[in-house]
Amino acid sequence: MTNERYAVVRMGGVSLIAGAVSFMAVFSYLAARFHYPEVLDGRAADVLPALLATGDAGRAVWALYSLLPLFWIPAAVGAFHALRGREGRMRLAMLFAVVSSMAMVLGLMRWPSFHWELARAWAADPSIRPALDAVFNATNRYLGNFIGEFLGELCVSFFFLLSASAMLARDSGFPRWIGWLGIVSAAAGLIAMLRNVTPAVAPVAAVNNYLLPLWMIVFGVALLRYRRRV
Question: Which of 1, 137, 153, 227 is close enough to 193 for a disulfide, judged by CB 3.0 to 4.6 Å?
């Protein structure tokens, strides 16, 4: 492996670790200030005033949160170079990572943009609240449930599933237990994305909120240590 390709692998590892740490920090902040993720199922009458109450700091945190999925792109390129022995599979994994990144950015960006303006209008003019409620529900359903949570999580789960399965090959240079951990994490993600369809998967979704960053950190460290095995 050339020095340039090795640097790309390392950047992928750094991206995964930075993404996981940032995700946990932002998730904790929003859980404390905005009752996230329970608020995702809330009504406009409850959610919009609460969103506006978080102030400029809350809006900035949402904007930061919406950019975190971009870490999937350098992570996928790094994984591709580290697991290039399964080139066809890893090219497909990269495509899934890019689609996931864009879908999640679109889904999350609705909070500091669409929803923020809806919240301001909700506070300014009570007479238009029925219309605002309809717009809130529509953007939540389309950008949130379908684009961000379903398409985004479906694609990132396939990215991880393909990468982890490539690690199981004996010549991959990665410990097989890391591959199995990735497969479990990807499977949990595929189940958790159905939380808007049935409440039966809620326990899996709750576990996935912790399993996903754990897997990202393990995957990232494995990419950072890759030079020791080449």
Answer: 153
Q: How far apart are the first and last CA of the chain?
A: 7
Long-range contacts of 143-149 (CB under 8 A, 24+ apart): 143/106, 143/107, 143/109, 143/110, 143/114, 144/40, 144/107, 144/110, 145/196, 147/103, 147/106, 147/107, 148/103, 148/104, 148/106, 148/107, 148/108, 148/110, 149/107, 149/193, 149/195, 149/196
Greatest C-alpha distance within the chain:
66
Nearest to 219 by CA among 65, 14, 6, 77: 14
| pLDDT, tens digit (0-9, with 9 covering 90-100), for 88-127 | 999 999 999 999 999 999 999 999 999 999 999 999 999 9
Give the range of the structural domain holding residue 146, as residue numbers without chain letter. Answer: 3-229
Give the amino acid at 188: A
In angstroms, the CA 145 to CA 123 distance is 25
pLDDT digits (tens, 9 = 90+) for 178-188: 999 999 999 99
Number of domains the chain contains: 1
Q: Cβ distance 108 to 73 under 8 Å?
A: no
